[in-house]
Please model this.
Amino acid sequence: MYFRKAQQQLQISSIARVLYLWTEKGAWLHAKFLNTEEAWDAYEILVDEYYMVNEDVVPLTKNQALVTVLRTTADLVENTQAIKQEQYEIRKELSMINEKVDEQITLTSGEQRAVQKEVAIKVYEIEVNTTIQSKLFRELHREIKNRFAVASYKDIRRQDLQNVLNYIRSWVPLKIS
Model:
């Protein structure tokens, strides 16, 4: 239906339910497949025409051939440089995207657990009194949030994990009150 409307100049019958479109090559192959004398004659004509050299073609002189080769080489070099420039731009863009992604990725649950564990080790190492321990937990968590500019230790960027763990290990409470 759509093909018929788009190709009105072909005068396709409105009652045609199937339409077969042939390429020239397909028609020749089909003729050969028919295996009749006429089909083989047509196939011979096709083969003869295919291998016949066109007499109108004038061979290039040595200088013309050289100019053609040089132009082609220059085009290839230009295209290669354009491709290299495009690759450079793509790499640069990819690098920027990777940096942005690295800045956005936060700790996994296992890494969050490692931070919690390190905080607990530090607090229990400093104080045995449970009342003071709870104050130390709050203080250390507050300092981690302030130092790494996060709302929660869960929001720590993955790339900062090692720095956070080192900070916790070297942390000293301000004043136990």
